[in-house]
Amino acid sequence: MIYLDANATLPLNSSAILAVKDFMDQMPGNPSSVHQGGRSSRAILEKARQTIADYVGCLSSEVVFTSGGTEANNMALKGFKGKPIVISAVEHASIRRAAPEGAHVVCVAKDGVLDLEDLDQKLEGLEKPLVSIMFANNETGVIQPIGQVVERVHALEGLVHCDAVQGLGKIEDLHFSELNLDMMTISAHKVGGPTGIGALIIKDGLPCASLLQGGGQQKGYRSGTENVLGAVGFAAALVEDSASSWQSVKVLRDFMESTLCAVGAKVEGRSTDRLPNTSCLRMPGFSAPSQVMAFDLQGIAVSAGPACSSGKISSSFVLKAMGIEADDAIRVSLSPRTTQEDVDSFVHAWKEIYQSQLLRKKEVS
Ligand code: PLP
Q: Which of 7, 71, 95, 166, when mutated, tests ligand 1's pocket best, judged by the most ligand atoms within 8 Å of its CB?
């Protein structure tokens, strides 16, 4: 299979596999136990936490492990009861659905970038708001002006949470303390780590309420025995692919886009800063679900919008938010494992599917 769905998930990379196997062989104890096995687990867990902290530019005490990006996003939005909440119109479902009724929703421009004027308007009169804006969009790859969001919100003594699930690993300047964020969400399975592990980075001392009541692990931020196996895999996965190896994926992505745009394709978000691996690619007149199936029959995995909706394929709310009424956009997302041959095969298949579609339309009319 040619796998061009990296934004949905990535297979475990070799460093993560090795680290996870090694941990399973040791069979240490519960990291909260005081005996030798427990202490050994605790040491392994804290080493993984430190590796992740160094990678994202925060203190290890600021890394709170969760079951993934979804839980971390829920925790960030639900941990500050009573605060006015502001999100963007293109956030992941785990932000949009966790936001309370009456949350303020900031629109994006046609290129997918946050409308800062609208943000200013939504912020007007709000007292110490909590603003959650994603680092990069999962469907278009469009990168948001998070630095400018932070400036505005901090001027109001508000808090900024950033869902950085798609930016992690792919972008060099994703650095928690340099961005001056208050909270940031990351997830392992988008960077070659295991599913079921992620983290909410919480600025030291910020009183984010726990979603779960229990043993008070992780300084009370997140009760429940820590997923040491997942944390070990997460830390190992992160160090395998450098941001520069993701950056080299851009050459393949740009080649694919320019070749296909020359024969009728359209790309949304292309005129602005994007993740190096993501393409929101439109085949005019051919619905995204039919495209996904046609590519699948040729052994190529792509997706129509987010993969997080229990296998459902629905039209993209992200494109709608960008003012684009179309159901012909698929998401093609490459990884450092994607080869030129993979891209050539995809380009060939795209042209073939497009041509046969045009022919069929001609026959019908
Ligand atoms: N945020 C974004 C931007 C995502 O793309 C995803 C998953 O696709 C999530 C959050 C949810 O992460 P997880 O699958 O780890 O729950």
A: 166
Ligand 1 contacts CB of residue 170 (under 6 A): no
Q: Secondary structure of the chain: what % helix, strand, coil (to 5)?
A: 40, 15, 45
pLDDT in tens, 275-296: 999 999 999 989 999 999 999 9
The rounded distance, in Å, linking the Cα atoms of 128 and 12 is 40
Q: What is the pLDDT of residues 164-187, one digit of tens each?
A: 999 999 998 899 999 999 999 999
Residue 280 known to be catalytic? no
Q: What percent of the chain has pLDDT over 70?
A: 97
The tokens describing 218, both together, are 């992780």
In order, the DSSP letters of 318-360 are: HHHHTT---S-EEEEE--TT--HHHHHHHHHHHHHHHHHHHHH
| Calpha distance 231→217 (Å, rounded) | 15
Take residue 223 and report the two structure tokens written for it.
């009760």
Kindly give the residue spans of alpha helices, DSSP state H, lying in 93-163: 93-96, 116-123, 146-155
Cβ of 163 closer than 6 Å to ligand 1, yes or no, is: yes
Rounded distance, CA 120 to CA 266, Å? Answer: 32
Distance 65 CA to ligand 1 centre (A): 15
CA distance 63 to 179: 16
Give dist(CA 344, CA 350) in Å, integer.
Answer: 10
- Residue 330's nearest CA partner among 256, 273, 262, 244 is 256
Distance 98 CA to ligand 1 centre (A): 13
